[in-house]
Amino acid sequence: MPKNLVIVESPAKAKTIQKYLGSDFEVKSSFGHIRDLPKKGMGIDLASFTPDYEVSADKKKLVAELKASVKKADMVWLASDEDREGEAIAWHLADELKLKPENRKRIVFHEITKNAILKAIDNPRDIDQNLVNAQQARRVLDRIVGFEMSPVLWKKVKTGLSAGRVQSVAVRLVVEREKEIREFTPKPSFKLEGIFLNDNKQEILAKLKKDFEKESDAENFLNLAKTTDFKVLNVETKPGTRTASAPFTTSTLQQEASSRLGYNVTSTMRLAQRLYEEGFITYMRTDSVNLSQEAINGAKAQIVSEYGENYSKPRNYTTKSSSAQEAHEAIRPTDFALKSIGDAQLNKLYQLIYRRTLASQMENAKIEKTVIEIGNAKLPQHFEAQGEVIIFDGFLKAYGIVKTEDEDDESNEKLLPKVSVGEALDYKKITATEKFTRPSARFTEAGLVKKLEELGIGRPSTYAPTIQTIQNREYVDKRELEPQKREIVKMTLGKSGVKKEVLEEKFGGDKNKFIPTDIGEVVNDFLTNNFAEILDYGFTAKVEESFDHIASGDQKWKEMMTDFYSKFHPRIEDVEENADRANGERSLGVDPKSGKNVYARIGRFGPMIQIGEQDDEEKPTFASLMSNQNISTITLEEALELFKLPFDLKEVDGQTVTIGVGRFGPYVKWGETYISIPKGEDPLSVDQNRAEEIINEKKVADAPIASYKGEPVTKGTGRFGPFIKYQSIFINVPKRYNFDNLSQNDINELIDAKLEKEANRYIQHWEAEKISIENARWGPIVKHGKNIHKIPKKKDDTKYEADELKDVSLDEVKKWITAQDPKAFVEKKKPAAKKPAAKKATTAKKAPAKKPAAKK
């Protein structure tokens, strides 16, 4: 029997660590936190700020198993992660498992290698209460902010909303950037570029040093250049260097994985977690760029072996942030001899980390920069060509050249031909193109992480969940913005003279960037107007500093909470009592037909347009906004167009056809089937012919592709990806299958697996009653329609076994449902029949249309 029990956070980590420890050790996983604040209620005594932790329902069985293992062990080693969250997990385990100080040891390691694990075992410590308190302070403060601010939003804006200390600040950044873009006025100027030829007919691309504000000035310059003899006025060559970036922190890894690999923040952290747990990299939640001497030596050995001694330059980096924990390391490989790993997806991120760390220990790249000035004394401005030659590639050999998001796409750094001062050049062509200034770019996920880090808001462990939360709350999204069009002037000087043309350019389009939703903007405006301090960037950063002071033992966490709450709670009471309701209402003008006022605002079902007043004798009419519209920018004309929807067309195959807009965008409704109108297509432009085209496309898409036991099988793509449909069963098609060329064997395999899974799903099923007892992820449940209910314990306070549930009667199950939902079987009253309208009804909707979830 093992004398030592090691408890880690994840089963993957447990599996890796078990390999390194002998038979005297048993390694078990806590699967993260075993207890937390209760899901319902505040869970905090606001007089003393004492949290009321509880073991979550899904962890009770696990805790019982851990308690049983603890009884058999002489020593328990708490080996959760080395950050504050990990320290708190160790503390919760020690408390819940009733571990005595003499029977427990806390060990930490920042990599899962044999040496690191054995070294940790040799150097145990006790739980660091300061780190635990810093995590408790964050958890308690954020719970208080969320639980006290959210009900204010329910009362003043819309039910179901939420607020949070960091998430609300992140939303504020996105909203303020969007407002900045809306208010931006683009200014035109003319940029000139010339292509010049030397005697060897080699091209030199050069840009005029100064732009012209006026078209006439640019045109005059071209006319002057037409008769000018161009020559090389100056050639300047100077040496330069490029220096490698520091090894990765959590933030810089997320940014680089986004720009180089296209990964979002959540995917990056999920893959990094796996790399860490499987022993390939060091701990991936860190704000330190520090490397251990062991790592520096390992990198040097690999660089010398692979590239040669002249490429090696060992160095250590220091973190600018005062709050960074230098005892931690940057994210790096655990073994520099391991250049790649088998899993293709993991390998992409591993390669990025490997090359970045290696590059950080390599020589600078040496470059030679050449600047050529081209012109003539009679010209008011001269051209300049810039080129760059890499003399020694240094770290670029491992890492390559990366363009940042801020770098100019039109960078003209390139290899230039050899020229000498005074050498005559001939112009091939010179162009003057009208360019408009651009507003600041919208945030990408990586850009938002970078900004939060710059402001000192959040810490490595908070970036990914914060970004996920603001999307889940639907305060921001990444919908694609269609570009607008504008005319620009382009003038070209060739040998035949100046040619002027008017071109069309697209601008303002965006995709995969954060855009605030209407509700996100309304919530942000309400919070910034009423809780200015909480949403202040400086205040949020200061709170993070307080957590750091608690972690270092320089501040008591309950004193910090008392100080915070003494100012925060009175503000909550004041806003709840005195603040006006907020719905983002904006007056658009007057409807020319009815003479009534038209408003854009947030309604019960989201952003909408309202014609008329709430207290008018004749009730107002409403229409939903389309997904690409916004209450802050929609015009009166665009709003009135919405009242033409929904509209009917002629029947197709004996079934009615309606064009409308719903929750998931514009659609064609054919009979009972909803068919999405392609992205970017205006539903008002869909006529009979176009509707029939869309319906026919749907027919083709829904045509059987095969059969299974004599029944047709169709395929399609839904919200959750590609699927096949057999009878009434939808079966997702995993990526390992070629969806475009599914064989009969593939189809048989997919359907067989699904039917087997469905057969094991039901313990009992009363189809007519829409009631079932089913096997679920965390144990059996009762399902009534779409509602899920718990299975109560038996009279002796024990749980039902699956075999016992097979014998439970329908009447007994109905009692269980009624106990949890007294109205479950109450017959709903049928709505009274509507009286026929005295006059033709308006086509405007009385409530925003809700398109049902698209059926697969």
UniProtKB/TrEMBL annotation:
Record domain Toprim: where: 3-112
Pfam (any one): Toprim
Keywords: DNA-binding, Isomerase, Magnesium, Metal-binding, Topoisomerase
Catalytic activity reported: ATP-independent breakage of single-stranded DNA, followed by passage and rejoining
PROSITE patterns membership: TOPO_IA_1 (PS00396), TOPO_IA_2 (PS52039), TOPRIM (PS50880)
Topo IA-type catalytic domain ranges (all copies): 128-572
GO biological process: DNA topological change
Stretches the record annotates as Disordered: 824-856
Record: active site: Y283
InterPro entries listed in its UniProt record: Topo_IA, Topo_IA_2, Topo_IA_AS, Topo_IA_cen, Topo_IA_cen_sub1, Topo_IA_cen_sub2, Topo_IA_cen_sub3, Topo_IA_core_domain
Known EC number: 5.6.2.1
Catalytic class of the enzyme: isomerase
GO molecular function, one term: metal ion binding
Family to which the UniProt record says this protein belongs: Belongs to the type IA topoisomerase family.
Function: Releases the supercoiling and torsional tension of DNA, which is introduced during the DNA replication and transcription, by transiently cleaving and rejoining one strand of the DNA duplex. Introduces a single-strand break via transesterification at a target site in duplex DNA. The scissile phosphodiester is attacked by the catalytic tyrosine of the enzyme, resulting in the formation of a DNA-(5'-phosphotyrosyl)-enzyme intermediate and the expulsion of a 3'-OH DNA strand. The free DNA strand then undergoes passage around the unbroken strand, thus removing DNA supercoils.
PANTHER family: DNA TOPOISOMERASE, DNA TOPOISOMERASE, TYPE IA, CORE
Subunit and partners: Monomer.
Protein name (database record): DNA topoisomerase 1
Organism name: Epilithonimonas xixisoli
